[in-house]
């Protein structure tokens, strides 16, 4: 067990080091940075949906919240270290409250989806109305539909003059993604992660075994939200402006599509799905013959109908079939409850 | 006196439009436990069908009440045969697939009609009550919503088709054993649900500027109303539309329209927290 864990970590580090070195030669770092950020966002939903069985329609709410908290606190503080920490901590705290309200109320599947969707809409509508000068937090005006521009972007901790941008921002984001990925791996290997998967498979059984299902789901939900908040804060640094569209329904929809296409119940799938589809969208944006919403929709329908397990598990089983039985692996995690409610 | 009349009309109008927006989704969800997230786009297409038909010289009421529901119903039929038929019983997967469909329809509408706002004028004149101007079209919407609810009740309670449909809703295996094909019944139900969505989109089209993404404005409200309504189709639809319409209008008059919208959403969260299975899981139990 420990040997395979060490091997897993080393593999992750080697592969990601190669990718971080090679990818900037193929794609511009400006585009790559946002792909990495989306990968992190995909991973956040992949964790709570794929391993916790919690389908959150409002992951964009946490993404946007992270970005807004970063922007507001960066304007007030004038330095980026504390705002980054705040963006993660406050978003996770908000999710903790929301999650406690939902999970202790024993809400499940569709009803959970409605509540998370509604919370996203409330944030979207509220932020959109905050155009007037009376809506300000400290020195930061919320700016309504125009968003908040001109905040302090990421800098070397302790030195507000030394900005991290361009190539450097890409490397920071990529390393952050690797760290988050390793933390998620560790979490899933810990007893907490195993029990979370148990709850996904059969909630009643886990409750009867004496685990506090509501508390565990709430904590997992908050961890996922914290990761989304971190991705949001990085996004704010990349875009250098935060707008209410971060909270939009379209954004939430996209995150769900990434997870489905990449593969639920895997750690890598959502990241691959997010980066791949975001890049596809970027390429499609350069032509005007076919509307790219149409293609995204088509991709989602086709995947749900023909490849409901997603790309990564499909490629994984293909690989196993071609390599044969030389590499024996644990049987794939079952995904019954998470996908069929 | 005048103001209270105006407020009453506005209140009824808010409730009636919620009923219209949600009816199509409620039929599909209540009958088949399929959540159609392309519902908003069905409404959008109903609106475009009306505007195109009026542009071709058809009478506006014919376009609204006959052409739009038929066209959208047929689109729904195609969608059901091609996609949804394969996903019955998989709630989350149908939601995702229909979400994909909604994106496709938005893309198609953008390619056909362009990303511009189109609209038609309201066919009914307004009139004044004392110092206030009342939109005459609001009355039309209220009347249509009442007719729709009565019609739904009559069809489900009074006709043989309604009886078979309700039977299939409860036990599809029993209905199949008695010689009715659930597949055909589901197909017909989805056609009716889509036609209702198209009708709602057509009726509301004169009130809004129509863009390909208009559907997004409806789907969240419809989704919330239907889920909060709970298991009973008509009782759930009317009771949740009434409570949400009431709450949002009270806050709209007291503070502002945006706060009214937010109040509706907050009310939905509180309501679902208190009654996790919807209103009709506690009240009006066993009603249709």
UniProtKB/TrEMBL annotation, chain A:
<feature type="transmembrane region" description="Helical">
    <location>
        <begin position="47"/>
        <end position="70"/>
    </location>
</feature>
<feature type="transmembrane region" description="Helical">
    <location>
        <begin position="12"/>
        <end position="41"/>
    </location>
</feature>
<dbReference type="InterPro" id="IPR001851">
    <property type="entry name" value="ABC_transp_permease"/>
</dbReference>
<feature type="transmembrane region" description="Helical">
    <location>
        <begin position="110"/>
        <end position="128"/>
    </location>
</feature>
<protein>
    <submittedName>
        <fullName>Urea ABC transporter</fullName>
    </submittedName>
</protein>
<feature type="transmembrane region" description="Helical">
    <location>
        <begin position="168"/>
        <end position="188"/>
    </location>
</feature>
<dbReference type="Pfam" id="PF02653">
    <property type="entry name" value="BPD_transp_2"/>
</dbReference>
<feature type="transmembrane region" description="Helical">
    <location>
        <begin position="82"/>
        <end position="104"/>
    </location>
</feature>
<dbReference type="GO" id="GO:0015658">
    <property type="term" value="F:branched-chain amino acid transmembrane transporter activity"/>
</dbReference>
<feature type="transmembrane region" description="Helical">
    <location>
        <begin position="292"/>
        <end position="312"/>
    </location>
</feature>
<feature type="transmembrane region" description="Helical">
    <location>
        <begin position="255"/>
        <end position="280"/>
    </location>
</feature>
<dbReference type="InterPro" id="IPR043428">
    <property type="entry name" value="LivM-like"/>
</dbReference>
<keyword id="KW-1133">Transmembrane helix</keyword>
<keyword id="KW-0812">Transmembrane</keyword>
<keyword id="KW-1003">Cell membrane</keyword>
<feature type="transmembrane region" description="Helical">
    <location>
        <begin position="218"/>
        <end position="235"/>
    </location>
</feature>
<dbReference type="GO" id="GO:0005886">
    <property type="term" value="C:plasma membrane"/>
</dbReference>
<keyword id="KW-0472">Membrane</keyword>
From TrEMBL, chain B:
<keyword id="KW-1003">Cell membrane</keyword>
<dbReference type="GO" id="GO:0005886">
    <property type="term" value="C:plasma membrane"/>
</dbReference>
<feature type="transmembrane region" description="Helical">
    <location>
        <begin position="250"/>
        <end position="272"/>
    </location>
</feature>
<keyword id="KW-0472">Membrane</keyword>
<feature type="transmembrane region" description="Helical">
    <location>
        <begin position="134"/>
        <end position="156"/>
    </location>
</feature>
<feature type="transmembrane region" description="Helical">
    <location>
        <begin position="91"/>
        <end position="114"/>
    </location>
</feature>
<keyword id="KW-0812">Transmembrane</keyword>
<feature type="transmembrane region" description="Helical">
    <location>
        <begin position="217"/>
        <end position="238"/>
    </location>
</feature>
<keyword id="KW-1133">Transmembrane helix</keyword>
<keyword id="KW-0029">Amino-acid transport</keyword>
<dbReference type="GO" id="GO:0006865">
    <property type="term" value="P:amino acid transport"/>
</dbReference>
<dbReference type="GO" id="GO:0022857">
    <property type="term" value="F:transmembrane transporter activity"/>
</dbReference>
<keyword id="KW-0813">Transport</keyword>
<feature type="transmembrane region" description="Helical">
    <location>
        <begin position="47"/>
        <end position="79"/>
    </location>
</feature>
<feature type="transmembrane region" description="Helical">
    <location>
        <begin position="185"/>
        <end position="211"/>
    </location>
</feature>
<dbReference type="Pfam" id="PF02653">
    <property type="entry name" value="BPD_transp_2"/>
</dbReference>
<dbReference type="InterPro" id="IPR052157">
    <property type="entry name" value="BCAA_transport_permease"/>
</dbReference>
<protein>
    <submittedName>
        <fullName>Urea ABC transporter</fullName>
    </submittedName>
</protein>
<comment type="similarity">
    <text>Belongs to the binding-protein-dependent transport system permease family. LivHM subfamily.</text>
</comment>
<feature type="transmembrane region" description="Helical">
    <location>
        <begin position="12"/>
        <end position="35"/>
    </location>
</feature>
<dbReference type="InterPro" id="IPR001851">
    <property type="entry name" value="ABC_transp_permease"/>
</dbReference>
